[in-house]
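Sanity check

After download, print the first record. It should look like this:
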Amino acid sequence: MKAVFSCVSPYGEISIPGSKSYSQRLILLSALFSIPLSLENISYSEDELRAVSAASQCGMTVRNSGGRCLISGKFRSPGKLFVGESATLFRLAAGGLAGKRETVEFRLSDSLLHRNHGDLLNALASQGVHFESIPRGFLMDASSAVTGPVSVTGRISSQFVSSLIVMKASMGDFGSEVSVTDGLSSAGYVQITMDVMRKLGFTIRSRASSFSVESFKPTDSVNLSLEGDFSSAAYFMVLAALKSANGIVLRGLDPNTLQPDRKMLDFMRQAGVNITIGMDNVTIRESGLSGGTYEVDGCPDLALPLTVMSLFSKGKSEITGVSRLRYKETDRIESMIKLARSFGASAEYSDNSVSITPPDVIRAPDDLEFLEHRSIMAGIIASIASGSRVVNQNVERISKSFPGFTGMLEQVGCRIERL
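Expected structure tokens:
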């Protein structure tokens, strides 16, 4: 779908949909351990729908009642799982089902199939898990999986570490250490995995560079309203900082969250953004912004919203710790540079950093095309901020992570011309 987005001064209140980092883990782990789950404020993004489908294939009954996602039943071997583009689902399901010594065909989208999973598969192989490449996926045979300590790199993805923690929990391998060999990027996401597991009844020990599952006393059920997703909220934070004289109130955000993307609040303060924080909300108003240095190794999903913010700031900005962005659904370093240059900025990559120098006058493109959901959303926010008529392509792809994005833009006064 093609669309043109415009707004003179967005304002109002929006409720941010629930954290996908929490929802995907809760849905998958409730199925693996047969613990009834009731979730409110789920957005039903494509990644979450894949997790719901996986729960169904694992024998669980899934239904929606009064806006709540309800999951109940008893685990059974799924045989086959289609995980789509969700790296979180594939990697954590591989660990969890390996711990149950299952044989499973995993079906992946083309983009996910070509991402880097090698170190995780090697770590699982060291535990007796066999993987065979099949068309569009992997056949995993974990019938001979063994207990004992295991190590894995933490630099490529924190999901590798989470996967092995879930494996140890699933096989009841209490006390065996999961060791991180070379530092842990995005450590906050491992903290979220452990938080979810504790809600289900696990006791987990965390040390400087290792983790172990110590015991399991399953809870009767989990009933939870998901906290707002900071990675989704970041786009509206940038929109408000650039265009909203009267402010946009973002409801449902927990300022004390474990979500790594809470860091966006610190980055915006650093840039001079006018922010008011309440008990469960954040209000942001239009501000004159200055460039800065933003380290995103622990919060890589903020790189694209920060690119937009840097475009409209005064002075040069550096977005550092970006090397892992080469290996997301697309090369997001390339997307950052393309986005900045499309609006007339100077943008270069060097030594794990993207530098952006905004132009004296923004020169918006007539047409802007990205294929990846976060890049598309960033392009839309930049287009609105520019005040120019920009045709944004592939808008439907946003549903992978944020199906309510365009509706919320309309809520705060943005006009959408669908072409």
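If your output differs, re-run the checksum step. Summary of this record's structure: The first helix runs from residue 20 to 32.
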